Fold:
Amino acid sequence: MEQLTVYSHAKVNLSLDVLEKRPEDGYHYIRTVMVPISLADRVVLHESPEISVTMSPAIEGPAEANLAFRAAQLLRDTTGYAGGASIHVEKAIPVAGGLAGGSTNAAAALTGLNRLWGTGLTQPELIALAIQLGSDVPFFVPSRPARVEGIGERLTPIVVKRPLWLVLATPDVAKSTGNVFRLFDELRHVDRPDMAALEAALAGGDLVAVAAALGNVFEAVMLPRHPEIGMLKRAMLDLGALGALMSGAGPTVFGIVEDETAGRILEAGLGSLNARTSLVRTIGGDGDGD
Structure:
């Protein structure tokens, strides 16, 4: 029986802006700079008569609601492939943390099964399928630093001259992404991030300028309602982070540091706070061998 193991990496949003809604379906247009990071789930794919998904540790809910399951079904339905696959995901990415754990698993299922099944879809064809699964899924098909626009389907590669070392901290905060969008729509004023400045800083490898250009419009929704997120940001800055930001719709916060050593010091300093922490680096940039 054929088997394939792939790693589905998490992401952080270094900048995130939410724009108007599409009139035809009410989906929001977005503009965001996303980078994949070294934190990853391990996804093992086996050929099998039917499609099945298991998770370790287990996550409650029907298989049909799992994005990796839906990705496999979509690929099979699109290509007419006659078989199936068992998909086992060993989770390392926090669930519902703003790091797109479900979306990256879906992309891993799409790209991995395209190889395992020999269905032969091109990357643009896989991206076209990915957008049917969620706005973050297309990014993980190439899984490279990019500006992401539209409803997630427009990917423009960006230059990241040097890998960024980041400390992640995920507090125990429950949230619904749909509700975060709804609350965002109620805001009267939004401070928009300067994406051009961020991209220039990334291309130049200027960590101080990168930190200064971080921005996420969803912080205006989440920080007033969940003070522990703001507390983590302040703690990171007090402990020497160059900048700190909530990723996606939260609640994970990341802090940018000078190097791995500074990251280990920062992570150790966060030990007394009630958050799951990890030290990671960005991958897939021009100055990175990954």
Remarks:
- The CA atoms of residues 184 and 220 lie 8 Å apart.
- The chain has nine helices and eleven strands.
- The mean pLDDT is 94.
